[in-house]
Amino acid sequence: MTGVDKPWTIIVGAGPSGLLLGLMLAKKGVPVQVLEGSSELDDSPRAAYYGPPAAYELRRAGVIEEVRKQGFDPIRTCWRKLDGTYLAGFDNSLLFDDQDRQACLPLAQLDRLLYKHAIAQPTLKVSFNHKVVDLGQDTEKAWADVDTPDGRKRLEAAYIVGCDGASSTVRKCLYGDKDFPGFTWDKQIVATNVAYPFEKYGYDDANFFIHPEHWHMVARLTKNPDGSGWWRVSYGEVSGLTREELIARQPMKYQAILPGHPRPGDYDLAAISPYRIHQRLADSLRSGRFLLAADAAHICNPFGGLGLTGGLVDIGGLYDCLIGVHEGKADESILDKYSEIRRQRFQTVTDPISSQNIRRLYDQDPDKALENDEFLKMLKSIENNVEAQREFMRSPNALRYDFTQHYKGNHKTMEGDQSAKNGIVSQVKEIAPTGGE
Ligand SMILES: Cc1cc2nc3c(=O)[nH]c(=O)nc-3n(C[C@H](O)[C@H](O)[C@H](O)COP(=O)(O)OP(=O)(O)OC[C@H]3O[C@@H](n4cnc5c(N)ncnc54)[C@H](O)[C@@H]3O)c2cc1C
């Protein structure tokens, strides 16, 4: 066997963040073992749209072209009233010449693509049915106690990264059950995948609907040559209902919110999944030889698609930090920098902007939105300004940060991306939402 028997990094979780980190590290020859508790990759209806800084990381990993080939380039994003009246929007095709424009591919497909590339690397191994149950570390190494089909095993590495999602065992082992500060929204959402002829009703690729009760989002998931395909419909629901109650209400909600007021039989429902939604951030993304990234480190409501976009930006940053340490270009203090900066980016960008994104949908009078909502007013004001729209669509790059500037004796920063150079993004007012919810 290769060095995988003695991994330098253990990654807990074979979701998109864990697979991307594993792929990037293994491409540099680092021995990596990815531990996945389930017997297979997750298939639930979640992310599909990834903003420009995530596309940048997928490009660095060498997979963006395939992501775009399997997926498609969304054209327009807009906000509407429940009756379909168009309020404001922007044209993603104005950025089609940018190699790091947003990308759309349902998460299950992205996972499979990353997995295929990851296991092709000779220094990477993915172990399914390996559930991490406990952790420990000393000055020399970190270890994970893992339930496997052959019983409990102890696996060791120099670093262990928790990419194990919102209910992260790694985070709980480090900080206890209660240590995911933040809050849970008093709303929940139901995410569905459906085939229905939205094209016939003049829908754009991503449509956000403002309404106090029936707020929702309709975004294209796949695009066939004839324009048909699967769509994501995610709608708000009152809290306090059970999963069964929420699922039973779906036909009523569809009839109320979708154009043509369809009944079951008028559409093909492929998936339905209720979610509680939260804004939470771990106190630290580093504890000695343990690190946290993506949903294990922070979560937000999915409107505007900042969740995994921010998670993949974590991964790119953590990759630079770990490679720096592995190759002797950086000392371990760079891992503290990782924690500090990624937390700042969540606090100054992801958290406030994603909160505005969801409130915009239910917390205002749709008839007055164009008068009162600063974001929609801004969109209206740049409607005929191509350069301003392009700049706006690149705004999610405020999530980026170049950690290689902390390599020993290196003070270089990323080219042409002022916001990414700065350690602190103090005031981010607007970030272009992707079609993510
Ligand atoms: C409805 C919805 C729509 C969304 N849309 C978007 C979008 O369009 N754009 C966007 O950017 N974000 C979106 N998000 C957010 C996005 O889906 C998440 O941020 C992303 O899936 C998190 O990836 P992850 O790799 O951190 O965790 P996960 O995808 O949750 O993967 C974690 C993995 O760890 C494994 N695991 C857990 N515990 C253990 C253990 N103890 N041992 C071993 N393995 C373990 C799990 O089985 C899982 O495979 C959406 C979320 C929802 C709910």
TrEMBL record:
Residues 10-351 form the FAD-binding domain. Keywords: FAD, Flavoprotein, Oxidoreductase, Transit peptide. InterPro entries: EF_Hand_1_Ca_BS (IPR018247), FAD-bd (IPR002938), FAD/NAD-bd_sf (IPR036188), RIFMO-like (IPR050641). Gene3D superfamilies: 3.30.70.2450, FAD/NAD(P)-binding domain. Signal peptide: none annotated. One of its GO terms (molecular function) is oxidoreductase activity, acting on paired donors, with incorporation or reduction of molecular oxygen, NAD(P)H as one donor, and incorporation of one atom of oxygen. It comes from Capronia coronata CBS 617.96. This is FAD-binding domain-containing protein. It comes from the Eukaryota.
